[in-house]
Amino acid sequence: MAWLGTWAKRRKITIPDASVEATDTLPIAIHLGTAVGIGSTDVTDIFDDLGANYKKIALTLSDGDTETVVEVERWDNGNEKATLWARVLVTNGADTELYLYWDATEGDNANIKDAGDGTAIWPTGTDEEYQVVYLMGDAAGDIVDSTDNSWDSLSESITTYRQDGIGGRGYALDFESAVPDFIEIGDLALEDNDLTVICVANAEAVTASGTLVGLWPTVDVFLLYAKDQVPDRWRAMIYDNAPILY
């Protein structure tokens, strides 16, 4: 197995093929902390060695020396937590292996990007055609789009930024319905196109119907929302003259 240059240390990251429905290139979140991954592994030695120097890391593909670009959503060395994002070909039929390197003596790695600066990860002109990627790691103000489409959203009434994400991983925004809190993207002009929406959310309390992601043109409507109803709390609705519930 090849080794990346003179980097001092590395850990192998394995994505089991059983967790992959079909071979595809997908966004992958890598969490670092005291109990992460399938085996609840403690990887805080990375923070012990690097402290706040998160650009002293590298991520490679299975060969051990082909780097891939990483966007850092969160690096909290005080609490020894981090969330990294990469776009990786994951396979069904064989495990997908990656290697995370770190070395405090290395120079800053140009392949490690700050949140909102990972345009190389999210292609906008290929079959994947990412339109918007929000990692929710902003400290204040508008929410920055990580793609080069630059669909930075307008935040409305958001007062709580950089909340601990689900399970204490990554960052999140806190939306309160009473205000109401929301972020506005604008018109993406996606009519007549297939669209995939991925949203990670935690409905702490739902006293009415709360929309997670919604599209409101003049006729057709798409809603991914949480409803004050147990157990069927999470719902999606497509409205084209008549509603279709999922």
Concise structural overview:
By secondary structure, the protein is mainly beta. 2% of the residues lie in helices and 33% in strands.
Description:
By secondary structure, the protein is an all-beta fold. The chain has 1 helix and 16 strands. The chain has 3 domains: 106 residues, Immunoglobulin-like; 73 residues, no CATH class; 44 residues, no CATH class. Strands 1-7-3-4 form a 4-stranded antiparallel β-sheet. It has a 4-stranded mixed β-sheet with strand order 2-6-5-8, with no helix packed on it. It has a 4-stranded antiparallel β-sheet with strand order 13-14-15-16, with no helix packed on it. This is DUF2341 domain-containing protein.
What tags apply to this protein structure?
246 residues, Immunoglobulin-like, four-stranded mixed β-sheet
Question: What is this structure's SSE topology?
Answer:
Elements: E1 9-15, E2 24-32, H1 45-50, E3 57-60, E4 67-68, E5 70-76, E6 81-90, E7 96-102, E8 112-114, E9 154-156, E10 163-164, E11 171-172, E12 182-184, E13 210-215, E14 221-226, E15 234-240, E16 242-245
Parallel strand pairs: 5-8
Antiparallel strand pairs: 1-7, 2-6, 3-4, 3-7, 5-6, 9-12, 10-11, 13-14, 14-15, 15-16
Organism: marine sediment metagenome
Protein name: DUF2341 domain-containing protein
